[in-house]
Amino acid sequence: MGIIEAKKLIFEYIRRDEEGNVEGITRAVDEVDLDIKQGDFVAVLGHNGSGKSTLAKHLNAILYPTEGTVWVDGKDTMDEEYLWDIRQTAGMVFQNPDNQIIGQVVEEDVGFGPENMGVPTKEIWERVEESLKAVGMYKYRKHSPNKLSGGQKQRVSIAGVIAMHPKCIILDEPTAMLDPNGRKEVIRAVRALNHAEGITVVLITHYMEEIIHADKAIVMDKGHIAMQGTPREIFSKVEKLKELRLDVPQVTLLAYELKKSGVNLPDGILTCEELIEALRL
Amino acid sequence: MAIILDHVSHIYEEGTAMEAAALKDVNLVIPDGQFIGLIGHTGSGKSTLVQHLNGLMKPTSGSIYYNGADIHTDGFDKKNLRSKVGLVFQYPEHQLFEIDVFKDVCFGPRNMGLEEKEVELRAYEALKQVGLEDEYFYQSPFDLSGGQKRRVAIAGVLAMKPEVLILDEPTAGLDPKGRDEILDQIALLRKKTGITVVLVSHSMEDVAKYVDRIVVMNQGCVMYDDEPGMVFRHYKELEQVGLAAPQVTYIMQELKKKGLDVDTDVITIEEARDGILKALKR
């Protein structure tokens, strides 16, 4: 069994008007099956309103299925007894770093999670140190989070999650508010966690170039999985992605355009190196 | 000559130990009808700069002129300035509050003291300008998608008929199609009405695709101010200040290194495609 598994997951919410009368039911997640293995890097794509954030919130029991089941590390998320275990196994990072940081000093903020879990003080400090080192923020441990850049703040948020020693980390558009450097820093830190620490990563993003190194990509549309496969398989279908309001990385699009103009190139080129090779330069 | 910034500086807590300069001696001319991209890393002074353009913030030294008049002299009509220089903040949909879309867009022009008929006419026009269909006009703004909400918020500013439209990261958090739709709509609006647009963005690809001129901010100073192709030539310097060139510019650099005779000033996919095709034929 994978670290995260879902069977026929359905989530519905009731829409109400001003007076609280029921207007209708929206099915935000529609019969989704998932099987994510420990150590995988899984990217979730999809347009605004496709259900990807709603799906993500099921992976650490912020939301519960209307129908179907989600298991995190073998535990059913509906089972209240395991709620804290589940949240500790699967940590979540959100879009806006300013909404997630509470400490006055970076190391204090990172220590909040483990302290809340009742970890002994000495071990808290050890965890804070290793987490900040893992995201490359150790030298800022005494700084005030307010004075950091967006990318640095977001890395502190990630450190705060990994200090709880999760097996899995879910990131919901962690780079949406960042400048190019901040985006690079965060993605680099996430990849390092996945590689070096073997932490399972579920990354939700609108930036296509951030997912080219993922093991698997899932594309959501109207609450269900519209496409899934390796990034290369997904990005080979430029037209289909555009129909789903998505995009491909610029190098993939350039190769696709060149191919349309008669240059002999394979589908799904993901990096500049691959383009150079395919052009036999 | 819509807006002129003359030696504008903004220093927080001047004369104290906490003193920090957010803007340092900024000189800029923003002529009528230009489409300007304003880029810079987080904390480089972009947002401080745009808040000076409509008088929300006052420079600690230097002057700002709007159509030749100093906006910080006594008697200058600031309320009028704010309707002429429309500022759309980041995540503007958080500022929607009315019970339906149409009422929300009416708020700005009504606040200007216009007659009810004119208010409604302007709201209608503005919603059309952002490409929102009639069927949404009487829906709650909170039932719309992210991209639609953002259009409503932009319409709220357009309904005041600004001469200058400033957008602070209008596409943050939108899906790729939503991003293109909003920017295409703004480009179209500018073409039709000749409005001046200042686009603050973290997406170098978007800036490259749409604007005539790029202003790069770094540590409160203007670092570059030129056409997109010229600015992105300095991609190495841009990287040092937390920015980058569009991905396609890097691809062209790499191709050139490998001996393909292409122009490396290219900043859009179409230019790159044409350039490579030409080089391959040689």
Helix content of chain A: 25-40%
Please report the two chains with the greatest interface, counting residues with C-beta closer than 8 angstroms to the partner's C-beta: A-B, 42 and 42 residues
CATH architecture type of one domain in chain A: 3-Layer(aba) Sandwich
List unreliable stretches of 5+ residues of chain A: none
Radius of gyration of chain A: 20 Å
The strand count of chain A comes to 10
Which band does the percent of strand residues of chain B land in? Answer: 15-25%
Unreliable segments of 5+ consecutive residues of chain B: none
Radius of gyration of chain B: 20 Å
The major pleated sheet of chain A works out as:
6 strands, mixed
Largest sheet of chain B: 6 strands, mixed
Listing every helix as H and every strand as E from the N terminus to the C terminus, the arrangement of chain A reads EEEHEEHEHHHEHEEEHHHH
Shape of chain B: globular
Give the proportion of residues in helices of chain B: 40-55%
Chain oligomer state: heterodimer
List the helices and strands and how they pair.
The complex is a heterodimer of chains A (281) and B (282).
Chain A: E1 4-16, E2 22-36, E3 41-46, H1 52-58, E4 67-72, E5 75-76, H2 83-89, E6 90-93, H3 106-116, H4 121-134, H5 150-162, E7 168-172, H6 180-196, E8 200-204, E9 216-221, E10 224-229, H7 231-235, H8 238-243, H9 250-260, H10 272-278
Parallel strand pairs in A: 3-8, 3-9, 6-7, 7-8
Antiparallel strand pairs in A: 1-2, 1-4, 4-5, 9-10
Helix pairs in contact in A: 3-4, 3-5, 4-5, 5-6
Chain B: E1 3-12, E2 20-30, E3 35-39, H1 46-53, E4 61-66, E5 69-70, H2 78-84, E6 85-88, H3 101-111, H4 116-129, H5 146-158, E7 164-168, H6 176-193, E8 196-200, H7 204-210, E9 213-218, E10 221-226, H8 228-232, H9 235-240, H10 247-257, H11 269-281
Parallel strand pairs in B: 3-8, 3-9, 6-7, 7-8
Antiparallel strand pairs in B: 1-2, 1-4, 4-5, 9-10
Helix pairs in contact in B: 3-4, 3-5, 4-5
